[in-house]
Structures are given as C-alpha cells and as structure tokens.
Amino acid sequence: MTDPSKLSVAVVCSSNMNRSMEAHNFLAKKGFNVRSYGTGERVKLPGIAFDKPNVYEFGTSYEHIYRDLESKDKEFYTQNGLLHMLDRNRRIKKCPERFQETKEQFDIIITVEERVYDLVVLHMESMAAVNNRPVHVLNVDVVDNAEDALMGAFLITDMLNLMAKSNDIDNDIDEMIQEFEERRNRVILHSVLFY
C-alpha cells in the first residue's frame, strides 16, 4: 500500500481543539483519509482565569466558539493563540466531535496522551462486536500547546507514512512501531481491538 488515502485514520485528543486538529490538518494535506475527535465530557479551553475555563458541548461549532471568545476578550484570546487555533479549526470542519459518539470505523486510531488512549481502548472494549474488523490504537504523547502540537503532527504523519507503505499492516505493524520508536526515540503504546 503506497496510497495514504487507503488508510482510514482517526486522531484523538481530549477536546478536538489543538493536537488532534493540528494532526488532522497536516494529514489531510498529505492525502490521508482522516477524521479527528475528543474524548472529554465537554470541550474545555483556557479562560482568562486559570480556574474558570471556557466550556462548550461537543457539537458547538468552531465558529460559535470563535465568536464567543472574541466577544469576551478579543485581545486576550488573540495573544494566547486560541482565536488563531479556532480559525484554523473552522476551515477544517464544522465542530469538535466526541469519539465515543462516532459510528465510523478506522484502520488506525492515534491518540496523543495516555489518558486519551485509555479512554479510547475502554470505549472500544465496551462496544458490542459488529464485524470483527481489526483496528490498531496507537498513542504518541504530544504536549498540549501550539508548538508541540505541530511537532506531534509531524511525528504522527511520519509514523503513518511508514504504515501506509505496508501491504499487510496487521503483520507488519510491530516492526514498524519498533523502527519508529528507535528512530524517533519515542515509546508508542499499541493495542489491537475489533469492531
């Protein structure tokens, strides 16, 4: 397989705002068939006070969130990068989506922190079997800030480019993960689950 669009990929973070959307943007530009999600109960973004985050329901449009933050304090949310991030997001898709609510099936699910990985695995294990289609769930730790999200998008794309070259990902994935871990000095969590 050399066509990245043949792999169905999901990238998952907590709120479907920063890390998953940066990777979604990058992977889509590289030709991957990609969707992105969050696993949190709600979408949480930093507020003006540390103890008062901006909280939205999944499904609230990026446009609405952008306008809401802009009306609250345009200068503050411009300086901290949230309006820029939301502007990027609204050009990619309509709204943040919650992973636990999707019915889509993927070949590979990439998470960006161990807590999100655990939630994805827990959700997948709790689902009734549909067709026993395998899915590889992988975790690449990415710190939740703009710079690290961009670097994480490069790492995720590098790993998926490696996997897109495989004609039999189910048999080749362990070797590909080991090669990636050694080359990038990263530890990758991996589970094989079934739809």
From TrEMBL:
Its EC number is 3.1.3.16. Pfam families: Ssu72. It comes from the Eukaryota. Its main location: nucleus. Keywords: Hydrolase, mRNA processing, Nucleus, Protein phosphatase. Belongs to the SSU72 phosphatase family. Protein phosphatase that catalyzes the dephosphorylation of the C-terminal domain of RNA polymerase II. Plays a role in RNA processing and termination. This is RNA polymerase II subunit A C-terminal domain phosphatase SSU72. It comes from Drosophila rubida.
